[in-house]
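re the bet — no i am not wrong, look at it urself. input seq straight from the record:
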Amino acid sequence: MEIKLTDKDKKQLTNPDDVYDIMQRILLRDNKIDREKEHFWIIGMNLAGYILYIELVSLGSVSATVIEPMNVYRIAVMKNAPRVVAIHNHPSGNVTPSACDKDITDRLIQVGRILNISLDDHLVISTKEYLSFRRAGLMTELEASLKYVPTYQIIEQIRKQEQAIAKERVRTAKEAESIAKLAALQLKRQLKEKETSIRSAKEEVKIAREETRTEREQRERSEQILLAAIHFLQQNQHSSVEIAEILQISSAEVEKLLGS
């Protein structure tokens, strides 16, 4: 049975408070006898949250009502409603969801997925308060449930996960290979730089040795020239003192050269 909205009812729903504001008034419109029975309503909305319809799906007893998922979504399919909210009342006034409430919500989520219709929330209401499955975190918990997911969908999910894992492994392997190649290039460059440094050091040592040899040869040559000059002066009857003065060296250097 479709429920008519009044001028006071908000036409766009943005949060559970908006839903309860409408459904509380609808529940209070019933006579006292009907309020003592469990009702199950569905609100159909467009993507922007504007109400397309409110349908009383089931009217039960004081403690239960029978819900069939296909009856819940029948009008939604007919009116092309992509989003729905489920609402049912607890005549006792205790809005704590029962195990059956959670179970039917689980089923409705899975059927909605097959029909491509989103069950946005499920409210348990009384004339004074309400509980939102979405706000309580129950929708998130039930959306992850696999209890009523068809086997083929579970297999498909597993395959997708396996494919994702395989892709991740390939990506990780490629990244590891790239890192290894980069490390190898860096090591090769470092070795080349080290070889260049060693070669430069060797060349510097070689140059130093050559310079040392040249200096030694020059010193030896100078000593030979001085020694030849000393011998020449000695042959001309010059004393060591005179030779030192002529050559402008010390007498000790003259004696050292003569003794070498």
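see?? Strands lie at 39-45, 51-59, 83-89, 118-125, 130-132. told u. also The longest strand covers residues 51-59. so pay up
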